[in-house]
Amino acid sequence: MSTPPHKDPIRVDVTTGSHPSTIWIGDGVADRLPDLLASHNVGARRFVVSSPAIWKLHGEQLTRVLGATEPILLPDGERYKNTQTVSKIYEALIRAGADRGSAIIAVGGGVVGDTAGFGAATFLRGITLVHVPTTLLAQVDSSIGGKVGVNHTLGKNLIGAFHQPAVVAIDPLFLRTLPRREFRSGLYEVVKYGVIASRGLFDRIARETKAIFARDPDVLVPAIVESVQIKADVVSKDEREGGLRRILNFGHTVGHALEAVTKYRRFRHGEAIAYGMLAAADLAVARGALADRERQALAQLIAQLGPLPPIGDLSIDEIIEGVRRDKKVVHGKLHFVIAIEIGATMTVDDVTEDEIRAVLVRLGMK
Ligand SMILES: NC(=O)c1ccc[n+]([C@@H]2O[C@H](COP(=O)([O-])OP(=O)(O)OC[C@H]3O[C@@H](n4cnc5c(N)ncnc54)[C@H](O)[C@@H]3O)[C@@H](O)[C@H]2O)c1
Ligand SMILES: [Zn+2]
Q1: % pLDDT > 70, the chain
Q2: Sign of the CA dihedral 216, 219, 222, 223?
Q3: From CA 193, how far away is CA 184, in angstroms rounded?
């Protein structure tokens, strides 16, 4: 972590009806946290929430930057993203005498961010939240947009709130310690942004795959910035998912079902979304909405990014059941985001089970 910041950080604003949220992106941004927090009036009582694994890697740097702090460390892993873990946060805050002017600084991936964020949304009816995302997925997706929450034993992300972070400090230098598979998982979400809104981004990932994996800042930082801009733009126009925000769910209908039927053990989130994007593209081709060469370009890029866990043994009936249960079924209709070209999507609400079944057969499930 000794590389000097080579460029000024980029600022992106999320302007929603509730609370404004400012995102700073750039190598070395974490070292500027004290200034960023001060300039956005984040209170002086700050509670860092992280996990032992992340703190072991980056705690020293953050302690140096933020001053001596006793972090609230949450057990690492999706299975701890639950209300018991949130209770641990409440307990630590209450014991330390936190008040309405206190702030939570969530340092970690989406699990820490969602859990700590839910704690911030609910403690004393809401205290200031700052995200310092340390996975690529958290940097381009989960730290932006204000969705926070935890899982229930009966389903994922069922307990939650909207709580915009006051500040998001995205430092791509954190990604140097991220395992390749976690990095790839986030990269599929970057590909998603390309498909829904930017052919340029899509093409750059395809062309510069090696440089991206090498965390070359000249390629990686702009890819993160563009992804963040796309999400921030969508969220600013539609914070509560009235319509437009649904395009962010491209690939997530089948993707979520894949995660659910494999009990969240087989796939990293992005890997399931990679399959979900292939399914959505295939469905679009079958409907005549997308040219087959566009689907092939997507399949080629996904293949190029690395192997995905197998799906040949998964039951189509179970996936269909999972799709039905998905939160995106509104009044019995399945809203489905399909690509019409790389860089543009539309939402359709008349997708039938038979269509999905045919797609899953072609993807190779049984
Ligand atoms: N709120 C939202 O809008 C939103 C959007 C997408 C996903 N999510 C949620 O995000 C979660 C997934 O997030 P994730 O993919 O970041 O997973 P994660 O938080 O589980 O992190 C993945 C792993 O990487 C480790 N890690 C984190 N930073 C590291 C670093 N810099 N170096 C080395 N290891 C590091 C973690 O300890 C963990 O083991 C899911 O719970 C999902 O529901 C939320
Ligand atoms: Zn996702």
Answers
A1: 95
A2: negative
A3: 14
List pLDDT tens digits, range 316-366: 999 999 888 775 566 666 888 999 999 999 999 888 889 999 999 999 998
Rounded CA-CA distance 23/21 in Å is 7
What DSSP designation does 77 have?
Answer: S
Pocket of ligand 1 from Cβ distances under 6 Å:
51, 53-54, 57, 76, 78, 81, 108-112, 114, 134-135, 137-138, 141-142, 145, 147, 157, 174, 177-178, 182, 185, 269
Q: Determine the distance separating the centroid of ligand 2 and the alpha carbon of 97, expressed in angstroms.
A: 36
Instruction: Determine the residue of 51, 79, 269, 273 to mutate for testing ligand 1's pocket, defined as the one with the most ligand atoms within 8 A of the Cβ atom.
Output: 269
Q: What is the number of the ligand closest to the CA of 52?
A: 1
Q: Check if 147 is active-site.
A: yes
Q: Using the 8-state DSSP alphabet, how is residue 327 labeled?
A: T
Which of 182, 240, 267 best tests ligand 1's pocket when mutated (most atoms within 8 Å of CB)?
182
- Mind listing the pLDDT tens digit for each residue in 70-123? 999 999 999 999 999 999 999 999 999 999 999 999 999 999 999 999 999 999
Nearest atom (ligand 1) to Cα of 147: 1
pLDDT at 1: 45
110: its two tokens: 């989406």
Has residue 4 got a pLDDT over 60?
no
Please check the confidence at residue 196 and state whether its pLDDT lies above 50.
yes
Nearest in space to 106 (alpha carbons), one of 24, 56, 167: 167
Question: What is the pLDDT averaged over residues 10-29?
Answer: 92
Radius of gyration of the chain (CA): 20
Torsion sign, CA atoms 251, 253, 256, 261: negative
Region at 227 (left for phi over 0; alpha for psi -120 to 50; beta for the rest): alpha
